[in-house]
Specification:
The chain is an all-alpha fold. The protein is built from 5 helices and no strands.
Length: about 150
C-alpha cells in the first residue's frame, strides 16, 4: 500500500475510534437520563454508533486484504487523518463536568455535527466508489442523529 492508502486507513481507523467513543458516550447519556423517551433515544444512538463501528471495521479489514484503492483518496491533517473529536477530553469527562440531560444533548449535537463534517470531507477526497458509498451512508445516518438531537434540544 502507498502513502495515500495508509493515510485513508488511518482516517478510517480514527473514525472507528470515534464511533466507539460515541457509543460509550450515548450509553452514559442513557444511564444519566431519567426521561424514558430520552433514555430510549440515547440507547438507539448507541446502537447505531456500534453498528457504524462494525461497518468501518469490516471495511478496513477488506481494504487491508485487498491492499489498494481504485482511485486513491488522501486526508490531509499531519498524516494522521482528520480528528473528529478533540483528543484532549473524553466525552464522558465533558458530561461528568455537567451531568444533565441538556448537556448530554449539547455534546451529542456537537459530536454529530463533527461526524457529519468528517464524513462529508471524506466524500470530497477521492473517487473510490466503495469508500464514497460507505461515507455517504455514514454521513446520512449521522445527519439523522443530528436532526433528532436538535429536535430534542
Amino acid at each position: 500500500m502507498g502513502a495515500t492508502e495508509i493515510e485513508v486507513l488511518e482516517a478510517l481507523e480514527r473514525a472507528m475510534t470515534t464511533e466507539m467513543e460515541g457509543y460509550q458516550f450515548y450509553i452514559a447519556a442513557a444511564a444519566l437520563t431519567g426521561d424514558t423517551k430520552g433514555k430510549e433515544m440515547f440507547q438507539v444512538m448507541a446502537k447505531d454508533e456500534i453498528a457504524h463501528f462494525h461497518s468501518l471495521k469490516l471495511f478496513v479489514s477488506q481494504l487491508r486484504e485487498k491492499g489498494t484503492f481504485q482511485d486513491g483518496m488522501k486526508i490531509e491533517a499531519g498524516g494522521k487523518g482528520i480528528p473528529i473529536l478533540p483528543p484532549e477530553e473524553s466525552l464522558q469527562e465533558r458530561l461528568a463536568r455537567n451531568p444533565t440531560e441538556i448537556e448530554a444533548l449539547k455534546i451529542g449535537i456537537d459530536i454529530e455535527a463533527k461526524a457529519v463534517k468528517f464524513y462529508s470531507d471524506m466524500l470530497t477526497k477521492g473517487n473510490d466508489p466503495e469508500i464514497r458509498e460507505l461515507m455517504a451512508q455514514l454521513k446520512h445516518m449521522e445527519n439523522g442523529h443530528l436532526t433528532i438531537l436538535q429536535g430534542e434540544y
